[in-house]
């Protein structure tokens, strides 16, 4: 180990260098296979030496009046390479101002070193008052460790705190529980996301520390190991805690070394390298990093469960309670209610009645007054999971119990979460074990598959609850139309059950769901519906976001696939719940509007009858009539309307709403040649997005798409849809549906004007002021890029070619594609732009400039060039 002495630490720069060299030593010597405590201790002792050298240099007068104390994580000697250095400078109440000046010089040098300091300078009496006012300061001092100076000051402070006892065990416990709940909220009450925080997230190191603090405050024990001697913590659970802590310590240590900073998020950028460091070798399809993250998440789940159990036990055994509340109230022959928690009557209840492992969750649902399962009973469940074996799963009564749980009118989400956390769900459904703690590296799912699944079921449940009606009232209305909500919950449970297996997860999931339905005696009608929903759970989302749903043929084809209104209702609710459970940022007013529009159009098609599809000419005439009436009401003459419409193809009236046509017509009618290209922006239309409308000469069309998308991209806007119509008199109408990157509509007038002027400059070859591209680069995509795929599909009616592009999203993507279209003389009719996280899945509807179809040779040549262009 590198050594230091007072001569090598004469300036802040030398201290920086010494710490830098020590971190380099740690990086070279660290290995997950070595005891992590050695590294934590080495870092702590190194900082001890540095601080003691500086202390002895600066604190030279009346040294008996001062003490240097390590507190917090540093006090525990849990120092990671870039951890905060938490110290308390303690001084006697009677210390003179002249003597205190020494502290100022000492502290100034520490700040000049650039280290992250948690530095407090207080007298004994100030410490007592601070601890009385704030339990977090008391928590820090509970882990104090003398470094230099007069140790009697610290001993006196500890004695005073013990005698004064500023926080009772009950108040301290309640404060820590509230602190934990607030911390959980910051992470949406889940640890199972793409970049988990291994320190602060649920099930992280902070949960372990909460346990240690509440027990230490009450029992004055040095660590959790001492609880095993008090018969409060079984040796097996202590070993679980210790092993979990070791793993998280090692990961955090590796994370600091890999990032070169105090980073507690297990960032996407470093997961692959750290996985390899921990022995999870990279195989095909990210298998190494997936296995590493699955190992991590299972550890976190274990810690969440232990945190819940041990905090509940502390509350029960260590805090004052009304004795009457702890009198058992019989629920049935196996279980009682004790202080609001369901408890097993005997330690062998599950061995005698194995089905009681499921019954307890059903009782929890049926008894609203219950707050949860008693800690001792959680332990019993965990120790008896082996009873859920093949024979148990074959038991008709056990199967009935499981279905009854899914059919309850309340508590489904809460109970399924508990069943997952305690291991019951994976034990009863071995297929579910495959998705527990499994992360998906597709750049848009931010939760593990099991967590995503439970979020889907939670979202489905919300559609049934009046208190959530304001979130998505249309979904609440549709939910009232379904007769069997449990079908939705079963579908939600199985829709991603085959993730991680080779093959199409929807097809494989259908097979698993079918077997479940057979095993659980679900009716033939319901089995068909569940299996169809699992197999087609992506169909509505794909149709809405990748196809032109203004096309009656697209609606008719989708309606044929759905077949029944009943199937449509279930599919619509499942689709909304699924998207909203993928990533909170993915759900936008645009997607809400698209799905609602597709639902309504499909309902109308089903009611009209699949043998009686809508006539396109009727649709055109209805749209024109509606738009004409409103335009006349707004003061336009029939002559002006006809002049604006006479050269526009009928296709225009199929692809635009009447309100869009009205807006376009008014703009075109008031436009002169000098105004071209005309750029207008409507901040919010009925689809919930903003529309950028461009009216220009046809000769400008070649560059409109590439230049406009480049401008909108630089402005940091998300492009959702593009439609291009060329009139017979050589004018082009272009509309782009956009949202802010946050998913919100454009709401600021200055922003609207800036967008229009920027697009106009881009189209008019005006240089304008060079601006930074606001389109964010994705860290995730850099480390887990998506291989570019491009396919041409034929329109069934041979009206156009459809190009499907899947690639990694990046600044300027659409502009590059548009320029390549120009080079190949492709004419863009419309585009459906779908960017999910860093994954771009775009559909382009194309012809050649002479409106002919693109032949196979041209298609192949284009796709090869496109892949080369995007994979540079």
Describe this structure in words.
Strands 9, 10, 11, 12, 13, 14, 15, 16 and 17 form a 9-stranded antiparallel beta sheet that branches. Helix 8 packs antiparallel against helix 9. The radius of gyration is 33 Å and the shape is globular. With 872 residues, the chain is of the alpha+beta class. The protein has 39 helices and 17 strands. The longest helix is centred in the middle third of the chain and has 32 residues. The protein folds into 6 domains: 162 residues, Beta Polymerase, domain 2; 150 residues, Nucleotidyltransferases  domain 2 (Four Helix Bundle (Hemerythrin (Met), subunit A)), CATH 1.20.120.330; 86 residues, no CATH class; 180 residues; 56 residues; 192 residues, no CATH class.
Task: Describe the secondary structure blueprint for this structure.
Blueprint (H helix, E strand, L loop, with lengths): L11 H18 L6 H23 L7 E5 L1 H4 L9 E7 L5 H16 L4 E7 H10 L1 H7 L3 E5 L1 H14 L4 H18 L18 H15 L5 H5 L5 H25 L8 H10 L9 H32 L10 E2 L4 E4 L2 E4 L4 H4 L3 H11 L5 E2 L1 H9 L6 H5 L1 H12 L4 H10 L2 H5 L1 H4 L15 H14 L10 H7 L5 H10 L10 H15 L4 H12 L3 H8 L5 H11 L2 H18 L6 H20 L7 H18 L4 H8 L5 H5 L2 H12 L8 E5 L7 E8 L3 H14 L2 E10 L4 E10 L8 H15 L15 H5 L5 E6 L6 E8 L4 H11 L2 E7 L2 E2 L2 E10 L7 H15 L2
Parallel strand pairs: 2-3, 7-8
Antiparallel strand pairs: 1-2, 1-4, 5-6, 6-7, 9-10, 10-12, 11-12, 11-15, 13-14, 14-17, 15-17, 16-17
Helix pairs in contact: 1-2, 5-6, 5-7, 8-9, 9-13, 11-12, 11-13, 12-13, 13-16, 15-18, 15-19, 19-22, 22-24, 22-29, 24-26, 25-26, 27-30, 28-30, 29-30, 31-34, 35-36, 35-38, 38-39
């Amino acid at each position: 180990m590198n050594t230091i002495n007072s001569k090598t630490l004469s300036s802040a720069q030398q201290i920086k260098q010494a710490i830098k060299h020590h971190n380099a030593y740690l990086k070279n010597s660290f290995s997950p296979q070595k005891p992590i405590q050695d590294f934590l201790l080495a870092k702590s002792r190194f900082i001890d030496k540095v601080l003691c050298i500086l202390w002895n240099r600066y604190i030279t007068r009346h040294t008996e009046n001062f003490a240097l104390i390590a507190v917090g994580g540093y006090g525990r000697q849990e120092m990671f390479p870039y951890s905060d250095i938490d110290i308390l400078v303690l001084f006697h109440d009677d210390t003179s101002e002249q003597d205190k000046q020494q502290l100022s010089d000492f502290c100034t040098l520490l700040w000049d070193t650039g280290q992250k300091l948690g530095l407090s300078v207080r007298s004994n009496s100030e410490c007592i008052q601070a601890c009385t006012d704030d339990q977090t300061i008391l928590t820090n001092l509970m882990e104090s460790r003398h470094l230099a100076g007069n140790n009697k000051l610290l001993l006196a402070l500890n004695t005073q705190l013990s005698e004064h006892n500023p926080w009772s065990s009950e108040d301290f416990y309640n404060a820590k529980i509230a602190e934990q709940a607030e911390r959980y909220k910051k992470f949406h009450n889940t640890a199972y996301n793409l970049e988990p925080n291994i320190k602060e997230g649920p099930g992280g190191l902070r949960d372990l520390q909460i346990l240690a603090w509440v027990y230490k405050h009450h029992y004055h024990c040095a660590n959790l190991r001492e609880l095993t001697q008090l018969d409060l913590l079984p040796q097996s659970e202590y070993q679980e805690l210790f092993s979990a802590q070791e793993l998280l310590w090692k990961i955090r240590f590796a994370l600091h070394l890999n990032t070169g900073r105090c980073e507690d998020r297990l960032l996407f950028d470093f997961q692959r390298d750290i996985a390899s460091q921990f022995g999870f070798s990279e195989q095909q399809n990210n298998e190494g990093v997936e296995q590493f993250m699955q190992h991590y998440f299972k550890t976190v789940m274990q810690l969440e469960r232990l945190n819940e159990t041990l905090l509940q036990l502390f509350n029960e055994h260590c805090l004052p309670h009304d004795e009457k509340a702890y009198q058992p109230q019989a629920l049935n022959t196996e279980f009682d209610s004790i202080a609001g928690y369901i408890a097993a009557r005997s330690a062998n209840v599950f061995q005698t009645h194995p089905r009681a492992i499921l019954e307890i969750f059903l009782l929890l649902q049926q008894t609203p007054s219950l707050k949860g399962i008693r800690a001792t009973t959680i332990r019993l469940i965990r120790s008896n999971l082996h009873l859920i074996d093949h024979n148990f799963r074959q038991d008709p009564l056990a199967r009935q119990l499981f279905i009854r749980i899914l059919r309850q009118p309340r508590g489904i989400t809460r109970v399924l979460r508990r069943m997952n956390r305690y291991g019951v769900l994976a034990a009863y459904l071995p297929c579910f074990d495959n998705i527990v703690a499994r992360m998906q590296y597709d750049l848009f799912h931010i939760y593990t598959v099991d967590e995503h699944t439970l979020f889907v079921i939670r979202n489905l449940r919300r559609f049934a609850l009046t208190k959530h009606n304001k979130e998505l009232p249309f979904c609440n209305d549709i939910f009232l139309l379904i007769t069997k909500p449990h079908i939705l919950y079963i579908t939600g449970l199985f829709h991603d059950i085959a993730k991680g297996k080779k093959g199409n997860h929807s097809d494989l999931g259908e097979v698993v769901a079918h077997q479940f339905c057979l095993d659980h005696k679900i009716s033939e009608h319901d089995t068909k519906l569940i299996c169809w929903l699992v197999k087609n759970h992506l169909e509505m989302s794909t149709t809405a976001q990748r196809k032109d749903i203004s096309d009656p043929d697209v609606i008719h084809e989708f309606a044929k696939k759905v077949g029944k209104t009943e199937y449509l209702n279930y599919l619509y609710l499942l689709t909304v719940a699924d998207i909203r459970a993928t990533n909170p940022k993915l759900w936008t007013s645009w997607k809400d509007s698209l799905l609602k529009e597709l639902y309504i159009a499909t309902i109308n098609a089903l009611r009209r009858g699949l043998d009686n599809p809508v006539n396109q000419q009727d649709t055109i005439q209805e749209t024109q009539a509606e738009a004409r009436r409103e335009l006349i009401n707004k003061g336009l003459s029939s002559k002006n309307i006809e002049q604006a419409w006479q050269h526009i193809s009928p296709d225009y009236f199929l692809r635009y709403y009447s309100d869009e046509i009205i807006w376009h017509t008014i703009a075109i009618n008031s436009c002169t040649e000098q105004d071209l290209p005309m750029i207008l922006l409507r901040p919010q239309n009925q689809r919930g997005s903003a529309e950028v409308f461009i009216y220009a000469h046809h000769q400008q069309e070649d560059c409109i798409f590439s230049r406009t998308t480049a401008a909108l991209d630089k402005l940091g806007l998300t492009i959702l849809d593009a439609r291009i119509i060329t009139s017979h008199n050589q004018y082009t109408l272009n509309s782009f549906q956009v949202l802010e990157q946050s998913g919100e509509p454009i709401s600021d007038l200055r922003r609207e004007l800036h967008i229009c002027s920027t697009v106009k400059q881009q189209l008019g070859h005006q240089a304008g002021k060079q601006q930074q591209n606001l389109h964010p680069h994705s860290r995730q995509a850099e480390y887990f890029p998506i291989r570019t795929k491009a396919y041409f599909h034929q329109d069934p009616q041979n009206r156009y070619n459809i190009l499907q592009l899947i690639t990694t999203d990046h600044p300027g993507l659409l502009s590059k594609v548009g320029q390549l279209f120009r080079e190949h003389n492709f004419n863009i009719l419309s585009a459906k732009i779908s960017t999910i996280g860093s994954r771009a899945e775009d559909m382009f509807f194309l012809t050649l400039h002479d409106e002919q179809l693109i032949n196979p040779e041209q298609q192949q040549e284009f796709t090869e060039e496109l892949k080369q262009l995007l994979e540079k």
